[in-house]
């Protein structure tokens, strides 16, 4: 793959800066060291919270959450952070959530689910579901589910499980999600050695989620394994073109559309996994973040503008 041609210099600068903090062989480190270097990398990219956003840490029936609000929001967005189910937390995506709050005007609730390998599947899904139910009960607003990478997996899993259980689920926004696609074909092979996330990384994160065999036919583990894609909320999946996970977003939207639902796939040329952190330095990433924010805001208003 000719990444020198596909990726522009701004994005290469982001890749190099990321690698200085979070090296390519990070998955070979101890879990403690992976978290240490990931936290340092996130801190290096972290932006100040915009003025006017109120931030409070709360407890959602035992799950730590962080609530962002500006003014008097009438919608709530439950946000699940990325990090391969192994790293990340409330601080790693603090600036992203604060900016989404200001841009959309919605309440953003970031979920600090338990991490692997100390807590294997289904602990992450259980925490995500518990927090979502708490948000519905606490605020009574219509909700949008959103997340990046592993968090996109959890957002989709909650949406699948929530059919017939969640009222007023208005939409689903997935950002370079890993949804359990076939790792032996498509983008998994085409971009097996992509910058910032490789196929070997994906396989490591998949294995570390489990005790023993990887689950089969479990949409709370891999939403693409669900046999029924009907009744899901309007969905927007945004992927990075230079990412082994790219085709998961496309396949997921195709399944929803085939089942009669609303789904739209946005693939971002020249971008790599984790590009949310590049939104202030890479124009392509900034443009994509704007599209993500617009999608969340529109779905929260019941607007579908992708026909």
Could you walk me through the main structural features you see in this protein, from its secondary elements to its overall organization?
With 307 residues, the chain is of the alpha/beta class. It has a single domain, classed as 3-Layer(aba) Sandwich (Rossmann fold), CATH 3.40.50. It is built from ten helices and eight strands. The protein has helices at residues 3-6, 9-21, 31-45, 94-104, 123-139, 150-161, 187-190, 199-208, 246-258, 283-300; strands spanning 54-60, 63-69, 76-80, 107-111, 143-148, 169-175, 235-242, 263-272. Strands 1-2-4-3-5-6-7-8 form an eight-stranded mixed beta sheet, with helices on both faces. α5 crosses α6 (150-161). The protein is globular and about 45 Å long. The protein starts with a helix and ends in a 7-residue tail after the last helix.
CATH class: Alpha Beta
Domain count: the total is 1
Helix content: 25-40%
Largest sheet: 8 strands, mixed
Q: Element order, helices and strands?
A: HHHEEEHEHEHEHHEHEH
- How many helix segments? 10
Gross geometry: globular
Distance from N terminus to C terminus (CA atoms, Å) equals 33 Å
